[in-house]
Design a protein that fits this description.
- One of its GO terms (biological process) is gluconeogenesis.
- It is found in: Cytoplasm.
- This is Fructose-1,6-bisphosphatase class 1.
- By secondary structure, this protein is α+β, with helices and mostly antiparallel strands.
- About 30% of the residues lie in helices and about 25% in strands.
- It has 9 helices and 15 strands.
- The longest helix has 21 residues.
- About 45% of the residues are buried.
- Bound molecules: 1,6-di-O-phosphono-beta-D-fructofuranose and magnesium ion (2 copies).
- The site of one magnesium ion has 6 residues, from strand 5.
Length: about 325
């Protein structure tokens, strides 16, 4: 039996990768692990403690907030504010960014952008859901209040990013730019333990995740791609299999492990796309690229996009390298 490596031990071991490391990022990653254990507890018992269903409010996206959206948002904000490493946050459930005002927090070096609960439409039906996080060094001066500029940085500036998946097991997967590692929560000891070291996404796969209900309203090239994957050609493993969970984190996680592609295009009724650049697409793009995959808006690298607004949306094509490249080919051919 190989030695069990807890997340905390792994983080401390890896601290040496960063010569100027002072331990703040390590503590912040541990704060994220703690908050996700609290959210995991609530997700697991949601049906017993009346926290399924809608909260009764609508968020800045115009979406009906679920009770767990709000519970998860509060749990992470509390962990970041109390931790002292974070001077401000932006999240899917808050119209504006939040600059913490305590002295300790204003001395924090980092900002965190996060989607507290991803896959909200799947909460009540017991399908995997997640949390997505993205960490940047602040641009504003230490000791001052965080600014919008701190929040609107290109994905290439991320110092760390990751997600938590609340599924048949609960996992935390993250990168600091030196590969991707996955940790499974062992409920018997309450610790995240290394279970998926150095995750590498297969170059290609046979699984595609597209909400085909949007096909008549999006780029014709995507329709051509769906035609392509359905053709009978055993030499290329086609026809592929459709796998659309409807929880971005779960679809991306599957593709990282098994190979595959996830697509959420812009459509005539949401011309900017659905997914949010800074707290959904950028953090997952960092993970996917570190695992050898691609994440684009159909043309450009997601992490090169200059964010303009907190809740900005983008087209999203992400997963195994060869599959994303094939989609690009179809999009170009249809232009
Ligand atoms: O229901 P649709 O239109 O297919 O959208 C599903 C997508 O929307 C999301 O639920 C959006 O994220 P939130 O649940 O965090 O709002 C993704 O997780 C998922 O991939
Ligand atoms: Mg989401
Ligand atoms: Mg969400």
């Amino acid at each position: 039996m190989s030695k069990v490596v807890t997340l905390n031990e792994f983080i401390l071991d890896r601290q040496d990768d960063f010569p100027f490391a002072t331990g703040e990022l390590s503590r912040l990653l541990n704060d994220i692990a703690l908050a996700s254990k609290i959210v995991n507890r609530d997700v697991n018992r949601a049906g017993l403690v009346d926290i399924l269903g809608a909260q009764g409010n609508t968020n800045v996206q115009g979406e009906e907030q679920q009770k767990l959206d709000v519970i998860a948002d509060e749990a992470f904000i509390k962990a970041f504010e109390n931790g002292g490493e974070v001077c401000g946050i932006a999240s899917e459930e808050n119209d504006d960014f939040v600059a913490f005002e305590s002295e300790a927090a204003m001395n924090g070096k980092y900002v965190v952008l996060f989607d507290p609960l991803d896959g909200s439409s799947n909460i009540d039906v017991n399908v995997s859901i997640g949390t997505i996080f993205s960490i940047y060094r602040r641009k504003s001066a230490i000791g001052t209040k965080a600014t919008l500029e701190d929040m609107l940085q290109k994905g290439t500036e991320q110092v760390a990013a990751g997600y938590v998946i609340y599924g048949s097991s609960t996992m935390l997967v993250y990168t600091t730019g030196k590969g991707v590692n996955g940790f499974t929560l062992d409920p018997s000891i309450g610790e995240f333990c290394l279970s998926h070291p150095d995750i590498k996404a297969p170059e290609t796969g046979r699984l595609y995740a597209i909400n085909e209900g949007n096909l008549n309203r999006c780029h014709p090239g995507l329709k051509d791609y769906c035609e392509y994957v359905r053709q009978d050609d055993p030499s290329t493993g086609r026809p592929y299999s459709g796998r659309y969970i409807g929880s971005l984190v779960a679809d991306v996680h599957r593709n990282l492990i098994k190979g595959g592609v996830y697509v959420y295009p812009s459509t005539t009724n949401s011309p900017e796309g659905k997914l949010r650049l800074i707290y959904e697409c950028n953090p997952l793009a960092f993970i996917i690229e570190q695992a050898g995959g691609l994440a684009t808006d159909g043309k450009n690298r997601i992490m090169e996009i200059e964010p303009k607004r907190l809740h900005q949306r983008v087209d999203y094509y992400a997963g195994s390298k060869q599959m994303v490249e094939k989609i690009h080919e179809c999009l170009r051919a249809a232009e």
